[in-house]
Each structure stands twice: as C-alpha cells, then as structure tokens.
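Entry type: protein chain
Record version: 2
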Amino acid sequence: MRARAINPRFIAGQMRHGPRGAAELAETVDRLAAFAQTTGAVASVLFDLLHDAYVADLDVRDFLLQENAKAAAAIAERLDAMRRQGIWHPRRNDVDASIAALRGACGQEAI
C-alpha cells in the first residue's frame, strides 16, 4: 500500500495520465476491496489510507472528478460498500460526508 497505492509519487504519476490514471486509481480501490471480500485478511486501516489519499485529498479528488467522473463514482461506491459490509470500520467521523460529497459531485445520489 505505502509503496504504490498511497505513495504520493505513484498518485502524481497517475495524475499525469489523465483519465486513464484516474481509472487506475479506481482499479486499485477495486482490487483491494475484492481481496478483502474474498480473504477477510485486509486491515480496515488500509481503506482509511486509500480514503485519505484519494477522497479526502482535495487535489486528488478534483483530479478524479475532472478527468474521469466514472472512476470517482466507482471509488465512492466501492468504499461505501466496504463500510456497509462491515469490512471497513473508518477511524474518521466524516467518511460518510466525504463519500457523499464525491458522489454528489459525480451527479450520483446517495444509495
């Protein structure tokens, strides 16, 4: 996680790739979520790290929304699903609000 998914250099590199970079960030969230669902061996803190790096960071959030709103919506949906399924127990109290804000910016309603 720290070497790739949440590494600022990795994120900056993906941001240079525009829409495809945004899709890669969404795929990273998707892969971790799928691994968590199938193995039950993913610590909740890893989802906190992804949330902080992709959703809570306003520069990255703006990049996702501008370059690939579908990728931003996929990230919001996947993180929310992990929370609803009890796989992710966020440490922050504002997670629901930040996910809702991301969804709202994508034009999606909360589910």
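Comment: The helical segments are 8-15, 19-39, 44-56, 58-67, 69-84, 95-106.
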